[in-house]
Amino acid sequence: MTVEEIAGTETQADVRAREVEEQMTDDERFSLVISLIGAVPMIGVPRDERIPADVTNMSAGYTRGVPRLGIPAIQSSDASMGVTNPGYRPDDEGATAFPASILVGASFNPKLARDGGAAIGREARSRGFNVQLAGGVNLARDARNGRTYEYYSEDPWLTAILGAEAVNGIQSEGVTSTLKHYTLNCNETNRHWLDAVIDPDAHRESDLLAFQIAIERSQPGAIMSSYNKINGDYASGNDHLLNDVLKGAWGYKGYVMSDWGAVPEWDYALKGLDQESGIQIDVTQWGAEAFTDRLRAAYAEGKLPKERLSDMVRRILRSLFAVGADSWGPAPEVDLAKHNELALETARQGIVLLQNEGALPLATDQPLKVAVIGGHAQEGVASGTGSGAVLPVGGYASLIKIGGPSRMGASRNLYLLPSSPLAELMKLLPDAQIEFDPGQAPAEAVLLAKRSDVVIAFGIRSEGESFDLADLSLPWGQDEVIDAVATANPNTIVVLQTGNGTSMPWRDKVKAIVQAWFPGQAGGQAIAEVLAGTVNPCGRLPITFPADLSQTPRPELPGMGTPWGTATTIRYDEGAEIGYRWFAKTGAKPLYAFGHGLAYTSFEYGELEVEGGETVTATFTVTNTGDRDGADVPQLYLTAAPGEERMRLLGFERVELQPGQSKQVSLTADPRLLARFDGDAGQWHISGGTHALAVGKAADDLVLVGEAELEERLFGS
Ligand code: BGC
């Protein structure tokens, strides 16, 4: 559909929104364009008296409804990994804590994203939330970003496909979902005072393309703007990105809500913002609410046109109506056991086996002496922190208060979710003698390592919202402990629970490395199954793991170490060449490349055929050449366009194969992935001529190569 067609197509929801909005009073209209956050004692936000006393399920946002017109109250809750309350409120009864989005990214499995979304949507609805603040589709641009765990990948296509499916799942349950944070909220350091500077065309080819494709594929009811500025203008009042690009070029019909504490001015309404979220936070952040008295005054003075106010309201209404949030029946039954099973299956599919010199899977038929060291493996698995972190039903396995007072402090705490990898391993290896050492001191851990047949050392890190990591090391001396035990016993396996890559200085001393991310409430079981071999690990890296920060576009992170509130500028001079694209351009060798992941079986590719024309279609076969069932993720890349080297992931498919089985895979590229954005024309441009392609196991492991002739053309917007 063209943008004109989309803009010209009125759905039933649009028609109803128009008809209902016409009947509203101005007071009712104004009540809809704000939301109030529930009480958050931890940051000193009391319960707001504008929230009716009978509302008990408060979370991130509450907007009064208009019962006489059938408009329900709008109640929003975080986030992408489960239903949660910001601020870890004491009355939170918990929800299924799914694995981190970055782990879903590593599964390369859109169905898991959709099923997870549907489960989260159902849990949201059963608790009375009709807006889920999910769909984190910022691209992972920096290995220090505290919120990488909330995002899917560094690649626009992979991110868009998974983000869209998560939204489709949530919205299929009658709950509106956001995609967030629009755009370039790629670091936490000074995020409210951060200016993200980028070439506008490169922006279209990267972060914005992820949003554009995800929007097309899922029609999210809302887009949440980010905290930062983009090229000098705050995201929530960025006329160009909201009005020209999102609502103009892309014909987006839903509403734009701000992030909490991102609206300094009422005139952001003129620049494309439709709803001010958590208005009390704007008082803390900017000294005043923007869309209450000030917006009303602007309206009275004729500075806010009536048509614009109506448009803001209609957008909000149509999104509620489009998913049926106004016509909910009884609350759905939630099968928590089934959701736990889904959390488990997701963790199984997203754990990545980075390295394995025959150490895994563990021998289950011998009375092995196994040393499990560190990582609080006797208690649970690490979780990311901040607004997206989910309190599991039944509570944390442990909360280790390493942070200080304030919201920031809560983000620094270490939250451990059940299940315990140690306990799960004991169940799977009943004949083994398993001993645990907390990994507090190298000398002590070595004592156990020396008398064991195999060492499983855990490395964990607390990562989350409102802070970035200073470097790629593991905290609390864990790198030293791992180094010491690997020196004492070369038969060492390392299991990492982090949201970003780490430097792994001990890498050459260990036999196997497993990247388990923040694997959610069933993560301990999934880790144990991978180690014991009852699950064949098939996840792939959705982000490049750099060997060190000097290989990345920003060896020094601007603003790092300055007090919160320091004006900071990040220049994204790498443009669209993020992650694996940057490594292809610079020729640097990462620690582990995008797309990399081993399994307990092997795969071969053959018979590549490529078709050109308007886009590229590649057809090839994948064969499981090993001796056990497994899944592979062949990846199609553009490696060069006429006149330039240019690396782009064009497609992927997760293929399940039995030993000896082959499957033909056919991947057709979205033409925008083959194009450059031509800002002057406002269109995508494919250069005519020969394009080089490859099918690979990872961005640095290209197995089959081919070429396609493409026609020169300008298209889309
Ligand atoms: C986060 C958002 C979140 C919101 C509401 C903000 O701090 O950036 O992702 O949805 O809080 O809790």
> Helical residue percent?
25-40%
Mean pLDDT: 96
Ligand kinds: beta-D-glucopyranose
Summarize the biggest pleated sheet.
6 strands, mixed
Compute the number of strand runs: 31
Low-confidence runs: none
**Overall 3D shape:** globular
Distance linking N and C termini? 12 Å
* Tally of DSSP helical segments: 19
Strand content: 15-25%
Query: How would you write the strand order of the largest sheet?
Result: 1-2-3-4-6-9
| Radius of gyration, taken over Cα atoms and rounded to an integer in Å | 25 Å
Structural class: alpha/beta
Describe this structure in words.
The protein is of the alpha/beta class. Helices cover 27% and strands 21% of the residues. The chain is built from 19 helices and 31 strands. The strands form eight sheets. A six-stranded mixed sheet has the order 1-2-3-4-6-9, sandwiched between helices. Strand 23 and strand 24 (644-652) form a beta hairpin. Helix 5 (110-126) packs parallel to helix 6. The model has no long low-confidence stretch (mean pLDDT 96). The protein binds beta-D-glucopyranose (BGC). Beta-D-glucopyranose is lined by residues 60, 78-79, 86, 133, 180, 259-260, 387.
Helix and strand topology:
Layout (H helix, E strand, L loop, with lengths): L2 H6 L3 H11 L3 H7 L28 E3 L10 E5 L22 H7 L2 H17 L4 E3 L22 H16 L4 E7 L11 E4 L2 H5 L2 H12 L3 E4 L3 E2 L2 E2 L4 H11 L5 E3 L21 H8 L6 H8 L5 H18 L12 H15 L1 E5 L12 E5 L7 E2 L15 E3 L5 H7 L1 E4 L3 H8 L4 E5 L4 H9 L3 E7 L17 H11 L3 E6 L14 E4 L7 H10 L35 E4 L8 H7 L16 E9 L5 E8 L5 E3 L2 E7 L2 E9 L2 E3 L4 E7 L7 E3 L4 E4 L2 E10 L2 E10 L2 E3 L2
Parallel strand pairs: 2-3, 3-4, 4-6, 5-7, 5-19, 6-9, 11-15, 11-16, 16-17, 17-18
Antiparallel strand pairs: 1-2, 7-8, 10-18, 12-14, 13-14, 20-21, 21-26, 22-25, 23-24, 23-29, 27-28, 28-31, 29-30
The structure holds beta-D-glucopyranose.
Beta-D-glucopyranose (BGC) binds next to loops.
